[in-house]
Write a structure and sequence with these properties.
five-stranded antiparallel β-sheet; about 280 residues; about 40% helix; 10 helices; alpha+beta
Length: about 280
């Protein structure tokens, strides 16, 4: 989401100044500010490690299509910048804010649209796209005549994450038994899938490395469904690790709660301290 009310800088009277910085789960850095202290103009700039990989897949053409004249030369230190003149915004300002908030998603869509169209034209890709979407981690995309394969490599820094992650990934895999229209999901730990073994350099390896493969069929990549597919799959890594962290937090809270209950039981079981009178008459706790 945009994180900022679209009406905030546009309250009655003079426009207010804005200077907001934020970072998301994938390390994308955002800056919303007034260039040259001009309160009548707002820029949204983003610095993302994936941008350089996306250039060869037509990301600039996609951003021009989505944002038109608002897509301008990037500010120093950033990869992409959107610029909005507050005096010329349309009436539906919430729609403008929502579209601006989809900046990262629209950058990612460049590579997905490219390979989805290859599959739509029944053309197999001669080169696998490699997108370094997170530190040490990458996404690999290839197209065949009847499917598009998307592979995520992800690093589990905590051994517990591997166990919890395996449970989540098994649920993804089993979902297709109940929902036949769902994509096929495969996963492995330590050993890369065969698509990456055959001559793909720089593949992350190790016992704490997981590989998740989504096999997308034409029903997922056709023009009527591809936008939703991109919305969901581009943030898969964030989705997975977010739920792993939430699961660990829940388990820890339950453990603390149970420990507190046990301590109360133990405290109730302590014998009462005996007074001199109790000792005289032989009273026992």
């Amino acid at each position: 989401s945009s994180g900022i009310n679209a009406e905030w800088p546009l309250r009655p009277g003079k426009p207010e100044s804005v200077n907001v910085a934020a970072v998301d789960f994938d390390g994308v850095q955002y800056q919303i500010s007034n260039p040259g202290n001009d309160k009548g103009v707002i820029t949204l700039s983003a610095k993302m490690r994936v941008y350089e990989d996306l250039v060869e897949h037509g990301v600039e053409d996609v951003l021009k299509r989505e944002y038109g004249d608002s897509f301008v030369t990037a500010e120093d230190g950033y990869d992409v910048t959107l610029k909005y003149d507050l005096a010329s915004l349309p009436d539906d300002k919430d729609a403008v804010a929502k579209k601006a908030s989809l900046l990262k998603r629209n950058c990612f869509s460049a590579v997905f649209e490219k390979y989805f169209k290859m599959q739509e034209n029944e053309t197999a890709s001669d080169k696998m796209a490699v997108i370094h979407y997170h530190e040490e981690e990458a996404m690999y995309i290839s197209a065949q005549t009847d499917r598009v394969t998307v592979i995520f490599s992800t690093l589990f820094k905590d051994p517990d994450d591997i166990i919890i992650g395996r449970v989540f990934l098994q649920e993804f895999k089993d979902a297709r038994k109940q929902y036949q229209q769902a994509p096929q999901v495969l996963y492995s730990y330590g050993e890369p899938p065969r698509e990456l073994v055959a001559g793909q350099p720089g593949v992350l390896q190790g016992d704490n490395v997981g590989f998740v493969t989504f096999v997308l069929f034409p029903r997922h990549t056709n023009p009527s469904n591809r936008d939703n597919t991109i919305n969901l799959i581009h943030q898969f890594r964030t989705y997975l690790h977010y739920h792993i962290k939430c699961s660990k937090a829940y388990l820890h809270s339950r453990m603390r709660s149970k420990t507190s209950t046990f301590l109360k039981v133990l405290n109730r079981a302590k014998p009462e301290a005996m007074t001199d009178k109790d000792k005289k008459y032989g009273k026992r706790g």
